[in-house]
Amino acid sequence: MRAACCEATVLRNEVIAPDIRLLTVVWPDRDHAPHAGQFFTLRAWGADEAPFMSRSISVHRWNPDSSTIEFLYQVVGEGTEKIAQLKMKDTFQLTGPMGNGFDVPDILSKYKKIAVVGGGIGTAPLYQLVKELAAAGKKPDLYTGFRDEPYGLERFSPLCGRVHVATDSGKVGYHGLVTGILHPEEYDLVLCCGPEPMMKAVAAKCGAAGVKCLVSLEKKMACGVGACLGCTCHTTEGAKSVCKHGPVFDSKEVFGQ
């Protein structure tokens, strides 16, 4: 399915944590409805204004009843700073959905025990994932890692079997990395999104346990269609664009384990 480009209208742009925002917009094109793991490119500035390229942000939640999309994002640079300034009733350019995302029907047909692992803002696309899994009667266990204070987890609880939290500071939950509380041998499949070092560590544990692991890579995806080659990653099958061939890959393909 090809991506659509529409003028999206802002409903809310809420502060969730000091550098975390939750943007809710009306997405008028129901023929281009997103699924878990896909992303959109957002542009809240003119064609002749900096930054030159739009910003890619994963879908946090899609509500087909109200035709709204939520984006949970971190304010880290000029582009996201401009997106953070959007107010209710503002409009901006939204293009998508893009990427392969998680193939939830395939997952449901092949695996029984599922763990979902997220690190920091990498938890953003995982809410739509657990939402789709839970809607089909499959509540996965959730493992999350944060530096200090977790955010947004209250929404996950009703959709998950168990929710495990690890923090670097030890302020909440397990004191240490999320890999310290993950036991992949207890599952048939692990689905992961977060910082690359964390995903590599999760993939390594899954590889040692002989458990399949799918990872959603985080890259700066400028064009969103694989034309600029800015998000190229190395795989066992050669170089691939994260935006076009991913962002979801088998961990063995991108990490070799």
Helix/strand layout:
Layout: E1 4-17, E2 20-26, E3 39-43, E4 55-58, E5 61-63, E6 68-74, H1 78-84, E7 91-98, H2 104-110, E8 114-119, H3 126-135, E9 141-146, E10 163-167, E11 174-175, E12 189-193, H4 196-209, E13 212-216, E14 232-235, E15 238-241, H5 242-245, E16 248-250, H6 251-255
Parallel strand pairs: 8-9, 8-12, 9-10, 10-11, 12-13
Antiparallel strand pairs: 1-2, 1-7, 2-6, 3-4, 3-7, 5-6, 13-16, 14-15
Average pLDDT works out at 94
Gap between N and C termini, in Å?
31 Å
- Roughly what fraction of the amino acids lie in strands? 25-35%
Q: Tell how many strands the DSSP assignment holds.
A: 16
Cα-atom Rg, whole angstroms? 18 Å
Give the low-confidence spans.
Answer: none
How many strands, which pairing sense, and closed or not: the largest β-sheet? 7 strands, antiparallel
Give the spatial strand order of the biggest sheet. 4-3-7-1-2-6-5
Secondary structure category: alpha/beta
Number of helices: 6
Overall, the morphology is globular
Q: How helix-rich are the residues, as a percent range?
A: 10-25%
SSE order, as H and E? EEEEEEHEHEHEEEEHEEEHEH
Structure description:
The protein is α/β, with parallel strands linked by helices and 257 residues long. Helices cover 18% and strands 34% of the residues. It contains 6 helices and 16 strands. The chain has helices at 78-84, 104-110, 126-135, 196-209, 242-245, 251-255, and strands at 4-17, 20-26, 39-43, 55-58, 61-63, 68-74, 91-98, 114-119, 141-146, 163-167, 174-175, 189-193, 212-216, 232-235, 238-241, 248-250. The strands form 3 sheets. Strands 4-3-7-1-2-6-5 form a 7-stranded antiparallel beta sheet. Strand 8, helix 3 (126-135) and strand 9 (141-146) form a beta-alpha-beta unit. The longest helix is centred in the last third of the chain and has 14 residues, at 196-209. The protein is globular. The mean pLDDT is 94.
